[in-house]
């Protein structure tokens, strides 16, 4: 006889992929990183097992399905952070995600993970190119700082773009913004040219669908908040929000921001901010003792 108890869940990482600059369609599903630990105790044997959910898709009607998960019963390497950092392709059909130490692709509606070739030590934080045929990502090892690389989806040879940087976001105007080694945000061309710093203190950059603005997580006197600036680093402004932010992404129509963060009155939440009215809509609210939402993206629909 087995007794199953839902103990905890926590949500991690992401580096959102930009939607197409001329995209005329609608906002689709919300994709986010969610590890939920479900512990099963076998009273006959005394064995304890843990099952971990991974990347979750939440449709516009509020229904959810899990794209990736693992269980200690079948995989001894299973751990809470096994899957994460989801990024939706520009056509809305695929999700790239961290899968163990590598990257994988999966249909947004679910299915078998397709693992990408793994010539490097550890892959993370994927971001699709505007055409959807390449991925920018972070790779790291115990000896070296994280660096930015690009690889074809068909397994073509990867090449390094920036020696030290992480959490890339690829714009429809072919710039890659990333968190640099000094804790700020910089941008660079995919071939490594045009490198320049944009803001001294910031992380988790996300390009607007038009490729002209960047939303990001920035520091202020009371914690980490939502900020916005032009793609050249000018016109910096803070988006009003009373709380602590962990990640941000754009709606495909460019009218809203998807924010993962903790307000002063609630636990960790996933919500949207309308950029015209400032109205907030809560999509998901977690329970007590959770570490928060990280790794979010928004699917474009034609």
Question: Would you summarize the structure shown here?
Answer:
It contains no helices and 28 strands. The chain is mainly β and 302 residues long. The chain is globular, with a radius of gyration of 19 Å.
Can you walk me through this structure?
The protein is built from no helices and 28 strands. By secondary structure, it is mostly beta strands.
Task: Give the arrangement of secondary structure elements.
Blueprint: E1 2-10, E2 26-33, E3 35-42, E4 48-53, E5 55-58, E6 64-66, E7 69-71, E8 83-88, E9 94-99, E10 102-107, E11 114-115, E12 123-128, E13 134-139, E14 147-152, E15 159-162, E16 165-170, E17 176-180, E18 185-188, E19 196-199, E20 203-207, E21 213-220, E22 223-230, E23 237-239, E24 243-250, E25 256-263, E26 268-274, E27 280-285, E28 294-301
Antiparallel strand pairs: 1-3, 2-5, 2-28, 3-4, 4-7, 5-6, 8-9, 9-10, 10-11, 12-13, 13-14, 14-15, 16-17, 17-18, 18-19, 20-21, 21-22, 22-23, 24-25, 25-26, 26-27
* Strand runs, count: 28
Shape: globular
List low-pLDDT spans: 1-21
Strand content: over 45%
Q: Provide the residue-averaged pLDDT.
A: 83
Instruction: Give me the strand/helix succession.
Output: EEEEEEEEEEEEEEEEEEEEEEEEEEEE
User: Which structural class matches the secondary elements?
Assistant: mainly beta
Whole-angstrom Rg? 19 Å
Task: Give the terminus-to-terminus CA distance.
Answer: 49 Å
Biggest pleated-sheet summary: 4 strands, antiparallel
Helix content: under 10%
Give, in spatial order, the strands making up the sheet with the most strands.
Answer: 1-3-4-7
The helix tally amounts to 0
């Amino acid at each position: 006889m087995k007794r199953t108890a839902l103990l905890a869940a926590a949500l991690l990482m992401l580096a959102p992929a930009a939607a197409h600059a001329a995209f005329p369609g609608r906002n689709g599903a919300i994709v986010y990183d969610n590890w939920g630990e479900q512990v099963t105790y076998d009273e006959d044997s005394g064995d304890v097992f843990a099952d971990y959910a991974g990347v979750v898709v939440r449709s516009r009607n509020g229904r959810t399905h899990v794209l990736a998960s693992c269980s200690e019963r079948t995989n001894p390497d299973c751990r809470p952070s096994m899957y994460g950092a989801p990024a939706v392709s520009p056509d809305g059909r695929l999700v790239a995600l961290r899968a163990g130490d590598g990257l994988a692709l999966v249909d947004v509606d679910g299915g078998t993970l397709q693992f990408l070739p793994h010539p490097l030590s550890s892959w993370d934080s994927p971001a699709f190119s505007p055409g959807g045929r390449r991925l920018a990502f972070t790779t790291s090892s115990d000896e070296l700082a994280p660096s930015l690389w690009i690889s074809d989806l068909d397994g073509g040879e990867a090449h390094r773009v920036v020696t030290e940087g992480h959490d890339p976001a690829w714009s429809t105007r072919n710039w890659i913004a990333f968190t640099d080694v000094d804790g700020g945000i910089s941008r660079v061309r995919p071939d490594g040219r045009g490198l320049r710093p944009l803001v001294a203190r910031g992380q988790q950059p996300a390009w607007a669908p038009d490729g002209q603005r960047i939303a990001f997580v920035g520091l202020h006197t009371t914690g980490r908040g939502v900020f916005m600036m032009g793609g050249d680093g000018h016109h910096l402004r803070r988006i009003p929000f009373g709380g602590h932010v962990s990640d941000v992404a754009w709606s495909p129509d460019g009218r809203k921001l998807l924010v993962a963060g903790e307000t002063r009155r609630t636990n960790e939440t996933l919500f949207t901010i309308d950029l015209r009215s400032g109205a907030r809509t809560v999509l998901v609210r977690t329970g007590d003792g959770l570490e928060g939402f990280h790794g979010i993206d928004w699917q474009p629909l034609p």
